[in-house]
Write a structure and sequence with these properties.
heterodimer, A: alpha/beta, Rossmann fold, 6 helices, B: about 375 residues, alpha+beta, six-stranded mixed barrel, 10 helices
């Protein structure tokens, strides 16, 4: 994988005020390549010795650039495992993962943090904000880690917080915000520096129906505006209608939807 | 990452206070122990430092300043005729006993010093001055021992080693690791201590202006090979070495200091480890969004240094207050600026070392935990 910095797929979007730095190598989209995520024959085994549990049994999946895809399935079906592998926080037992045409599944462990930092925004089920930092600082954190100047990072954070409807709440710490507001902050953090890919793990799990719908709608609108590819793992059927495409996973295999593998 | 580290620290104020307290504890205990040890060392070397001599001639077997085998006046004569010597005077240094008015006796270390050079003291007067020693049968005593020696006042008459003496004045703080110093004119001290007229404890030498002390030392040593001719600095280090190697003082204070540091290390290590456990999910999140273990090590480093600086600030302030509070003629803490600087550096090292336990835990944090 090239460690060089390139313009991200969303570089043309005028939102960002941050400056890419050598700390943020982005996967270079090959000319004409439109597959943001390309999963081929991914398996994942847990356990060792005699008892091995195979969570993924050869998954193939393609997510197009700019697509808003929902991965649905019952508990234990392997959707979070697949999300973790795509997010480069878990290594597959076998198979290949490509981001914008570049193989990342074979990269050494030491390179993965930079791949995550430069290419992937995360939205976690429990929002996972840093409790000691304000909403604005939480959002700015990712860009600060990428090496952006504090002023620029905070300015972009404020812009994103305004976009997610948290104008005037940038100074509040997560503990002073409602669940819905915290998840909005998490969305803003995931979009900070406009990464080409955003992965969301059950983003509506801790929200009521209305908040869940509002938050997911917001995520979709912003990602479309920024040209971000979004993969949402969910079993919340109240938001299914927002997906560009829904892929079903059961017992470690894609069973429905359109894997769209060539 | 520094900002994140600070925010995490200040967010949990109770834990932060506990960690800082650990550093404060280590600073106070180690400085108090080393300071008192330094004070004791100073008490033992102050005579060598304040005697005003460039060179000391001491018995060949001597390891420290203590009553022992006397020198003969031949040594004094050799010293006086050595090229480069301006003054060579004898000094008497021996224990004496003062009779208390209510019965019983108390010990003093009687110094016999010769006018007009007064090599060997006295100094640090609170009442009177050296000229008092010219009066017949006059002795200067330590003011902090006035009550102990039977309620002494200027002009008081006491019996010292069976002879009548008059109190001519007082010094302050001249209390070695033993009985306090009392000063008398050399001839009086010779009578009081029943020294033979051709015997003395030491010979103190002042070299001529412009003379090289080392050259004079070598020339004198060659003339009196059965003795040791040492500079004041060499004598000071001889005494320190004696204290460290021939007494239990060094081991005792050293052990206490090490325990203080060790307990501080444990408190800081456990506090930081506990803080990491409390914030494990946040560290997992940081790893998931792209922080490396090196980034998190930097975060811990910043926290460690901050804990060390805060704890050292508070600890050093307390040490200053304690030092001022316990300062007396008998006991004083000797905390030089160098010791404070070394302590601060030691605390930073200790806190960084303590953070390795937390770092080991952070290394094991899997970023994937945030999806569970």
């Amino acid at each position: 994988m090239s460690a060089s910095v390139s313009a991200s797929v969303s570089a043309s979007v005028s939102v960002s005020t941050s400056t890419p730095t050598p700390r943020t190598p982005r996967v270079v989209p090959a000319v004409g390549a439109v597959n943001a995520i390309d999963v081929r024959g991914i398996t994942k085994d847990y356990g060792d010795g005699g008892v091995v549990y195979r969570a993924l049994k050869g998954v193939d999946l393609v997510v197009h650039q700019g697509e808003f895809l929902m991965l649905v399935g019952p508990s234990g079906s392997g959707k979070t495992t697949l999300l973790s592998i795509i997010g480069c926080v878990l290594r597959p037992t076998s198979g290949e993962l490509r981001l914008f045409g570049e193989t990342v599944s074979g990269l050494p462990e030491s390179q993965l943090p930079e791949i995550r930092l430069g290419n992937i925004g995360f939205i976690f089920q429990g929002h996972n904000l840093i409790a000691s930092m304000s909403a604005r600082e939480n959002v700015a954190l990712v860009n600060r880690m990428r090496g952006a100047p504090t002023k620029d990072a905070l300015e972009e954070a404020q812009y994103l917080l305004d976009k997610v409807g948290l104008h005037g709440k940038g100074d509040k710490k997560p503990g002073m915000l409602s669940g819905g507001e915290r998840q909005r902050v998490a969305i803003a953090r995931a979009l900070a520096g406009h990464p080409p890919i955003v992965l969301a793990d059950e983003p509506t799990a801790s929200l009521d129906a209305t908040s869940g719908l509002v938050v997911t709608t917001l995520l979709k609108e912003l990602s479309h505006e920024l040209g971000t590819t979004v993969l949402v793992v969910t079993h919340d059927n109240r938001i299914f209608h927002l997906a560009d495409r829904i892929v079903n996973i059961e017992d470690g295999l894609i069973t429905d939807g359109t894997p769209e593998h060539p | 990452m520094a900002r994140v580290g600070w925010r995490m620290m200040f967010h949990d104020k109770l834990k932060m206070a506990g960690t800082v307290l650990g550093v404060v504890f280590a600073v106070v205990l180690s400085n108090q122990q080393l300071g008192v040890f330094g004070g004791l060392v100073y008490k033992n070397v102050m005579f060598a430092e304040n005697a005003g001599a460039d060179l000391w001639v001491i018995p060949g077997s001597a390891e420290t300043l203590a009553p022992g085998q006397p020198l003969s006046d031949a040594v004094l004569m050799q010293a006086r005729v050595t090229p480069g010597v301006a003054v060579a005077d004898p000094l008497l240094y021996s224990g004496a006993s003062i009779q208390l008015p209510g019965g019983g006796t108390e010990a003093v270390t009687l110094i016999g010093t010769r006018a007009p050079a007064f090599l060997g003291g006295p100094w640090n007067f609170v009442v009177g001055d050296r000229s008092a020693l010219a009066s017949p049968d006059t002795v200067l005593f330590e003011t902090s021992d006035r009550d102990k020696l039977g309620g002494l006042n200027p002009g008081s008459i006491r019996e010292l080693n069976g002879h009548r003496v008059v109190v001519g004045g007082f010094t302050w703080g001249l209390v070695p690791f033993g009985p306090s110093f009392a000063f008398a004119d050399y001839d009086l001290a010779q009578r009081l201590l029943r020294f033979d007229r051709d015997r003395m404890s030491y010979v103190l030498v002042k070299v001529q202006d412009g003379a090289n002390v080392a050259d004079v030392q070598a020339a004198l040593q060659a003339r009196v090979p059965e003795t040791k001719v040492v500079t004041a600095v060499e004598l000071r280090w001889m005494i320190v070495k004696y204290l460290l190697t021939r007494t239990q003082i060094g081991v005792s204070f050293g052990t206490s200091t090490v325990f203080g540091l060790l307990i501080g290390l444990i408190i800081v290590a456990l506090s930081m480890f506990s803080s990491v456990i409390d914030n494990l999910r946040e560290f997992g999140t940081l790893k998931a969004i792209g922080a490396t273990t090196t980034d998190l090590a930097k975060l811990l480093f910043v926290q460690s240094v901050t804990y060390a600086v805060l704890g050292s600030l508070v600890g050093s302030f307390l040490v200053t207050r304690i030092s001022g509070g316990i300062r007396s003629a008998q006991l004083q803490m000797f905390v030089p600026p160098q010791m404070t600087l070394i302590t601060w550096a030691l605390m930073i090292g200790m806190c960084v070392a303590a953070s390795t336990l937390a770092l080991m835990r952070i290394r094991k944090v899997e970023p994937g935990m945030v999806f569970r």
